[in-house]
Amino acid sequence: MHTTEAHIATERPSRYLVQLCEHFDNKGRHLHHRPRAHALPDVPTDQIHVEWTDSEGVLRLAWGQCTLRATPGLLRVRVEAGDQENLGRLQDLVTTHIGRFSRRDPLRVEWQPSP
Questions:
Q1: Which of 3, 67, 88, 98 could pair with 78 in a Cys bridge, judged by C-beta atoms 3.0 to 4.6 Å apart?
Q2: What pTM was estimated for this model as a whole?
Q3: Residue from 30, 5, 15, 29 nearest 94 by CA
């Protein structure tokens, strides 16, 4: 299993965690009804499973998993995939969405190999 992590400094880690999870939960339920320009390529909508609380979240896709944890001043993101290509897809997906959600006060996402 290939794994990387990002520790994202923010004053609102819970807000971003919930926003990401709600976005993907909503996308998974409604994507087949209303196509969007930023649809996930090659991902059947019934294969996006999202669970979350204010402090923890998990996104499960057919090609990998993303685990989120909000702690004071920090959003911790861990992505796992069976191969390097899918790991890169997950990193790009998370980085793109965090960038989109933090436009006014951009967050910095730097991926590091996981121990």
A1: 67
A2: 0.83
A3: 5
For residue 73, is it left (φ>0), alpha (ψ between -120 and 50) or beta?
A: left
CA 9 to chain centre: 16
CATH number, domain 2-31+45-113: 3.30.310.50
d(CA 2, CA 30): 30
Q: At residue 92, what are phi and psi to the nearest 5 degrees?
A: -65, -40
Instruction: Tell the residue number behind the tokens 């959003």, with chain if given.
Output: 75
Distance from CA of residue 67 to its chain's centroid?
A: 8
12: CB partners within 8 A, 6+ apart: none
Nearest residue to 66 via CA among 57, 55, 74, 75: 57
pLDDT tens for residues 104-114?
A: 889 999 999 98
51 vs 36: CA distance, rounded Å: 22
